[in-house]
Amino acid sequence: MTATSDPAERLALVLTEGGLQRMTARVLAALLFTEQETMTAGEIADALTISSGSVSTALRSLTGIGLIERVPAPGSRREHFRIREGAWATLMSNQNAVVTVMRDAAEQGIAATGPDSPAGRRLAEMRDFYDYLWREMPALIDRWRADRAGAR
């Protein structure tokens, strides 16, 4: 990368610690920190000194979760990629599926342990938290989008 490589590598490390695959995190950081509008897979591989296969796998993953997109580049036969507009809100919207799974798992745990047991009380707090997130996340994302639209 460039002069921003230290912050980019730190971000990649944080993303990795948060559960993202290492190369996927590095590719995401490269796309976030680039001064270019878009990057090709080859440019990413060169910037990170990693294999084209690693870049390809990371790009597929990031495209699949909606963080990046392929964009046309007139005059170029190579695919170009960039961070999607609204990617972070999309990512959090997709997290509602995870929130639902966690809430349902807590509910099943309460049914198995009993609501008045120590485990049941802990699981009830977990269920209530994820239920709150599930109810509030759509409105939070809508407010964020409205704030962003008003700032433009």
Automatic annotation (TrEMBL):
Coiled coil: none annotated. Pfam families: MarR_2 (PF12802). Residues 19-79 form the HTH marR-type domain. InterPro entries: HTH-GbsR_regulator (IPR052362), HTH_MarR-typ (IPR000835), WH-like_DNA-bd_sf (IPR036388), WH_DNA-bd_sf (IPR036390). GO terms for molecular function: DNA binding; DNA-binding transcription factor activity. The keyword Magnesium does not apply. Keywords: DNA-binding, Transcription, Transcription regulation. This is MarR family protein. It comes from Micromonospora coxensis.
